[in-house]
Amino acid sequence: MRKNINILVFILIVALAIFVLGCQSETGDKPQADPEERLVIAPVAQPDPLTDPDELENILQVAYTPQIQETAYLTYLTEAFVTRVIDGDTIEISTGERVRFIGVDAPEMGFHGGTYEAGATEATEFVRNLIEGQTVWLEADGSDKDRFDRLRRYVWLQLPTDPQDEQQIRRYQLNALLLYHGHAEILVIGSPRNEALFRQLVH
Q1: Closest CA to 84 of 134, 155, 150, 149
Q2: Does residue 19 fall inside a structural domain?
Q3: What is the largest CA-CA distance in the chain?
Q4: Residue 140: which of 158, 154, 161, 156 has the closest Cα?
């Protein structure tokens, strides 16, 4: 009986040893990960602005935001269509309103029994040739209207990028052009922003 027990114990020990060796063999055959490979991080794909419309729109918005902010003050210039030139310093626009040019006084045509003043025809024709039937941009400064209910405005032949830039005033503002070409005199009502420049333009 004891002999049989010893044989059984021996068999169990051998079986246990075989099992342990088998487990170690499987563990030893399994490839180990390279420590350096575990640290590699795949790069994140970046959107291409040439193929991704949303990304392109974001880039353009960022690029143009400073320009939009710099020229935001131009929103108070209003576009108008000139239907009739009344005289050298007054026009009528498509809304039916009349516009009186700020800071200048052209010779009178003598309407309604008034006295015709020398140079009135030349001043009127100068303005007519430039803007009648054309689109202009109107800029307010000071009082919105005069005592005759006419809009008081600077009149721009071209939309300025900076209405306070002297070179653009000399080239594109009709009020300044009238003075420079001798078709009007300075008329100061209140404190027009361009008064100092206007005085330089008078011959």
Answers
A1: 134
A2: no
A3: 152
A4: 154
Residue 54 lies in a domain: no
Degrees (nearest 5) of the Cα angle 145, 151, 155? 135
Dump pLDDT digits (tens) for 33-75. 454 445 555 555 555 544 555 554 554 444 433 333 334 445 5
Structure tokens at 19: 């099992």
The answer to whether residue 23 sits within a structural domain is no
Q: Look up the pTM and report it.
A: 0.62
Q: Is residue 26 part of a domain?
A: no
Average pLDDT over residues 23-28: 54
Contact 77, 137 (CB under 8 A): yes
